[in-house]
Amino acid sequence: MTSTETKVSSSSSSTAGLSWARLCKECGQQHEGQESHLYEYQDEVDDELVCHICLQPLLRPMDTPCGHTYCFLCISNFLKEQDFCPVDRQRLQLHQCRPSSLLVRNLLDKLIVMCPHYVECQQQMQRCELQPHLLNRCPVFRRLREEAEKRKRPSWNELKGRKDDSESSGDAKISASLSRNASRPQPDPGLINPAYEESEEDNTPLRSSLVAEANLVELFREEPEEVLGLRIVGGKDTPLGNIVIQEIVRESLAARDGRLAPGDHILEVNDISLASVPHARAIAVLQQPALLRLTVMQEKGFKIRDQRADPHPSTSSTPQHPTHGTHGNADNNPGTVLQVTLMKSQRSEPLGIKLIRKSEESGVFILDLLSGGLAARDGKLRNNDKVLAINGHDLRHGTPESAAQIIQGSEVRVNFVVMRPTEAQEDRGSSKEGQHSRGSRRLPEPQYFRRRTTYMKDPPGGFSSQEKTVSLKKEPRLSLGITIAGGRDCRSRLPVYITSVQPVGVLHRDGTIKKGDILLSINGVDLTQLTYSEAVSVLKAQTAQSQVFLRVIQTISEESEDDIDATNKDELDSMDELRDEAFNWTPLWTRWLGLPSHMHWCRDIVLQKTNSESWGFSIVGGYEESRGQQPFFIKTIVPGTPAHFDGRLKCGDEIVAVNGATTVGMNNSSLIPMLKLQKNKVTLTVVSWPGSLV
């Protein structure tokens, strides 16, 4: 047995000098982001559970092929300088190591540790329980968090705004100085900022600024081929510039972690800057195995400079003003934001709420309130309410499991922020069953249409396409040897594209058709407006003939994979192979940018607001001297704004028209007034492509 040295200062030391920014949110100690977590163990720890490098109990234990076990950070840092096992000096690389067995990890999780704020907290617990304790029960940790939030973050009321002081204006340019500088930084060329909006009709001096924070997020792949579950857009070869998270894939590593969200800008990965790398290179960097340290810039919403809002909001149900007008169909009016506080008689009392997730929308929803339960007796929460936050924890992209953990770990007060569908809001007298039936019904299918001739434009600079044709004579029984995906019934109305060319098929021998090519027609039959199943049926019927004439479009980027060094190319090839195995292969987001306009399918998104609100999105594009005319793309969507609560706009979407007026050929000075003039309602015509999956 070995007695581990205490790696932290005495628990009796004052907490006055603690810095929330440097405080680790997992172990509660102050240490650098890339250093191991610090714990104060109560008992002696068996030598078999101690790392051979740091001589402390193992953290994220990794087994080597030669039979030794180390902390993940210890062995990964060691192997950056050496290429052998520290104990027996056998040749070793990090990708050869594997996570230790579940038994070992469970034994480590059960080690008893003290809360780092033991003097005030007086708590001991298993190591695996320390983080939930800090986040939900530790009074010192809660006090430090509240003090930091008062200094840096707006309250939910401030984010949503109130009717008497809801003027919202600010900079959408994301930089490290956003929340610190009093002066307004100048936006980059091509950056249009509808989130900044001065009301000429309102003489109030109230202004607001965007709050953004740079955070370090560590994601650990237990298996090297595990997919992170991020869809990303952007890159230096695109008008967006930055690498931006468009979407978090359900049930993925990133979704389970819960700290990343759509709209986050990825600045660095394992100390590699993504500020000036093309899209394909960023994908390769994010494919690194094992531990990823992501430095991300995260929007927090608007912070009111003139704090006229009540700093202590009422604990009763407090309806916020609707993020949209009170009229219009449900598709364009998501609902009303409310704050509800439930008071438990004792900490262990259940709330009586059943939570679910929905297949068509991210987040957590109330399925039912148990009869006689606390929530049902209170009467303020309702079936089908979407849970935005609990006790300040953002659950817009959370899971029922994470919500339940927060509720279980809370004290007697549980604060909910929910969004209520408008239909349920308007029909207060209906029964619970009636509310649930209407609130959960599927919304009307959005209307897509081909890009109109007045909206036509050239692809962004650096992207183009070319048409290819192939004529084959073949035996009727032989297959073309291709698999396809897409179709006009899929998400984003993608065209039919080739996901693989099999080495046994006739097209592979021809070599003209490649994976990722868009199918236009076969034997004169148009494939561009067919659903997936219709396209499959047509291909089967036509390939049964002895003569096949195939037309496809290949999209091209100047920053192609060929321009990246051989190592990166190998990484991309490996990524494609893994994606073929785990998911249905999809082209990179940049491939869609080169698609000609006549292949685009658009939809209209109607946003509504009050006069003093911001639309809540920023745009890049328009005329740039270095690139000429560029399309307009959504770069940022600000939390707590109409664009955010509507939920249909995504980072990377192209805006092709505003209220039916095309943006093709516009520059910044033309589009800014057009957006500012729309006081209550605006119709955005957009084209949306799925981000690249990593």
From TrEMBL:
SUPFAM superfamilies recorded for this chain?
A: PDZ domain-like, RING/U-box
Question: Any idea which UniProt keywords this protein has?
Answer: Metal-binding, Zinc, Zinc-finger
Q: Name one GO molecular function term.
A: zinc ion binding
In terms of Pfam families, this protein maps to:
PDZ, zf-C3HC4
Q: Which residues form the RING-type domain?
A: 51-89
Locate the compositionally biased regions of type Low complexity.
312-328
| Compositionally biased spans, kind Basic and acidic residues | 423-436
List, for all copies, the residue spans of the domain called PDZ: 216-288, 339-422, 469-540, 604-690
Gene3D superfamilies annotated for this entry?
2.30.42.10, Zinc/RING finger domain, C3HC4 (zinc finger)
Q: Which SMART domains match?
A: PDZ, RING
Q: Where is this region: Disordered?
A: 152-205, 305-335, 421-468
Report the PROSITE patterns cross-referenced here.
PDZ (PS50106), ZF_RING_1 (PS00518), ZF_RING_2 (PS50089)
Indicate what this protein is called per its UniProt record: Ligand of Numb protein X 2-like
Q: Which organism is it from?
A: Gouania willdenowi (Blunt-snouted clingfish)
Q: What is the lineage of its organism?
A: Eukaryota, Metazoa, Chordata, Craniata, Vertebrata
